[in-house]
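REVIEWER CHECKLIST
Item 1: Sequence provided? yes
Item 2: Single chain? yes
Item 3: Sequence as submitted:
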Amino acid sequence: MADCIIVENSGGGVTITLNRPDQLNAFNEAQHLAFRQALEVARDDEGIRAILITGAGRGFCAGQDLGDRDPSKMDGPPDLGETIENFYNPLIRLIRSIPKPVICAVNGVAAGAGANIALACDIVLAAKSAKFIQAFCRLGLVADSGGSWILPRLVGEARARALIMSGAPVLAEQAQQWGMIWRAVDDDQMMNEAKELLQHFSSAPTFGLGLMKQALNASSDNSLDQQLDLERDLQRRAGRSADYAEGVAAFLQKRKPEYSGRE
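Item 4: Structure as written out by the authors:
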C-alpha cells in the first residue's frame, strides 16, 4: 500500500487514513488508487465488519490536488470530466455500495470533493474545529463527487444552493444542527468516539446493516410502494441469516449475541 494511505486493522474493523498531511490530504492519482484499493479490500474481506475513514494532520481532505490539474503546466485545458469519471465517481459509488457500515471522522477542514466524500459515508463525526466547504465555486467549477445530490437531501434545497453557490464554510456544530452530519465532538474526544463506533459495528449484525444501507440508498428515488416491496425482499433475506437466528437465540437465552456478520 502506498505511503499516502495508512491502513490499520483492529479486530473486525479497519481504519483507513488519508496520509498527505502537508497537502491537507488532497487527492493525487496515487492516493486515489491506494484509497480505492484499501476500500475494495475491506469490502471483500469477510473478517472486516466496519470501516473508519479519517485524515492525518490538521485536515481531513482538501479535495483535488490542484497542482495535478494546473492548466498552466499542461499543453491544453485539463479534462476534469475524465478525472471525475475515472476517480471520484467510482469512489463515491464504492462508499455508498459497500455492504458494511462506513464511518467518517472529520478531523479538520473538508473542502470540495473532500467534503462530499465525507458526506457520502454512513455515519459522520466531526471535530468541533472542523468545517465543511463546497469550494468548487471559488474555482469556477461545479460541485462534484455527489455534492449536488447528497447535500440537498441532507440540509434541504435552499441551504444546499446557498452553500454550493457561495462556498460558505459550515462549522461542525452547525453541520450537526442542520442534519449534515451525525455529531460534532470535542477535538480531543473525536477519534476516541470514532474508534468506539468502529468497535461497536465490528461486532454488530452487519449483514442486516448492509441490507439496511441498501434500503436507505434506494429510498430517495423509490415510491412508497417500491420501498415497501424492497423492505419485504430485504427482510426476507435478513430473516434467513445466521445473524437473525443468533439474535433471537441470544434474546431468548438472555445472553450477549455473537454475530458473524454473514448471511
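Item 5: Key structural point noted by reviewer: The chain has two domains: 5-202, 206-253.
Item 6: Recommendation: ____
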